[in-house]
Amino acid sequence: MVAGELGPCSATLDRPVPTVASFSGRPHPLLVHRNKSGCRVSAASQQTRRVRAATVQAQVASAEAPAIPKPGTLPPKIVNVDLGDRSYPIYIGEALLNDAEIVSRHVQGSQILVVTNTTVAPLYLESFVKGLREQGAFKVESVILPDGEEHKSLQVLQQVWDKALESRLDRKATFVALGGGVIGDMTGFAAAAYQRGASFIQVPTTVMAMVDSSVGGKTGVNHPLGKNMIGAFYQPRCVLADMETLKSLPDRELASGISEIVKYGLIFDPELFNWLEENVEKLLNRDSKAMMHAIDRSCAIKADIVALDEREGGVRATLNLGHTFGHAIEAAQGYGVWLHGEAVAAGMVMAADMSFRLGWIEPEICKRTVELLKRAKQPITPPKGMTAEQFRSFMSVDKKVQDGKLRLVLLRGPLGNCTVTGDFDPQILEDTISAFVAHEGISGSSDLPNTQ
């Protein structure tokens, strides 16, 4: 093995996860079995599986879908995130938001604080709070934050703690995040810090939040010098993904979330990538069956990876494909100018281009990545005017920098394979950045760059 490169992961759920971060596409030896929820789990021993199953059953004993779905809706699905005594279910379906009984199963005490924003509140807050209050002796409070990535800060987060203290919420209170990824990240961090740990529940209302940020327990806020640099790993008690909330989602927000689904296909699941090439327009048109399949598959993939590596010491880092480039774009433009998924889309193309320049992937993968993201209405290059120096500056404070050395998630091998490594020719990185800020042609693709 070349010094500095992280080799193939050989962890299983009944062994410690080694400090490696390579992950290859299906079928993977660690994740070849499925539990009854359809989530793939490792081939652990029968005894370990029985113990783990008993733990999960005790934790999510009430994690059952509604017995009688609303007429005309698709049957709901459940994906379990297997983290021992902190395991939790992800409910995926239609018309779930007003089924307050599901949320109430996972409320520990009698106090609930619903955290939402100025965009989501007029749409769902009143009916959601009413449903919770009708479930029993719940004291339900709410706080409405300003909407947008630019408000993901400690200063705005203070409003959540202010409301919790003013309402005399105790340690058994449950914080509920009703909104997109920003609200989910901030609410989870607020709960993690409040009286050293209150419970929280994720109710994502965007594609991005459903397939990525609401799953896995990453919480936090931005700092002017870096995205998500202040936060904590803190798992929710459940995730409730109601696809009907996507009907009110602006087209740009919906398309942005598709970039994270593309990411799962690139790093892990070539079958999902192939499916997206055939069905991406259905997602843009909000086809219910297509959307449920994409969300269910994405959640199952992320649940598997989080179960293996909760704190990103190994394979979980692969979920950051394109994010180091993308976070630099967000920070340079000012948080909120580009949506997170848009920045990640351009970042994934840069990562694919760099991988091709290194000789690690065939040009066809670059071309297919560009074509799919363009069809998903995502940018494939950084914004005009962004400089190479801005990339260098913001990438130098990325969370994947270790001992002063930048590590990147790059594609390597056939579609569905990637690696996290700091062992690459730095000149190749410079060449990639220079080509993209100059808006030259993309390696492996005959298409001229697009910007948004």
From TrEMBL:
Catalyzes the second step in the shikimate pathway. One of its GO terms (molecular function) is 3-dehydroquinate synthase activity. GO terms for cellular component: chloroplast. The keyword Amino-acid biosynthesis applies. The lineage of its organism: Eukaryota, Viridiplantae, Chlorophyta, core chlorophytes, Trebouxiophyceae. InterPro entries: Dehydroquinate_synthase (IPR050071), DHQ_synth_AroB (IPR016037), DHQS/DOIS_N (IPR030960), DHQS_C (IPR056179). HAMAP family: DHQ_synthase (MF_00110). Pfam families: DHQ_synthase, DHQS_C. Residues 257-401 form the 3-dehydroquinate synthase C-terminal domain. Residues 143-255 form the 3-dehydroquinate synthase N-terminal domain. CDD domains: DHQS. This is 3-dehydroquinate synthase, chloroplastic. It comes from the Eukaryota. Its main location: plastid. Its cofactor is NAD(+). Its EC number is 4.2.3.4. Belongs to the sugar phosphate cyclases superfamily. Dehydroquinate synthase family. It is found in: Plastid, Chloroplast. NCBIfam families: aroB (TIGR01357). Keywords: Amino-acid biosynthesis, Aromatic amino acid biosynthesis, Lyase, Metal-binding, NAD. GO terms for biological process: amino acid biosynthetic process; aromatic amino acid family biosynthetic process; chorismate biosynthetic process. It catalyses: 7-phospho-2-dehydro-3-deoxy-D-arabino-heptonate = 3-dehydroquinate + phosphate.
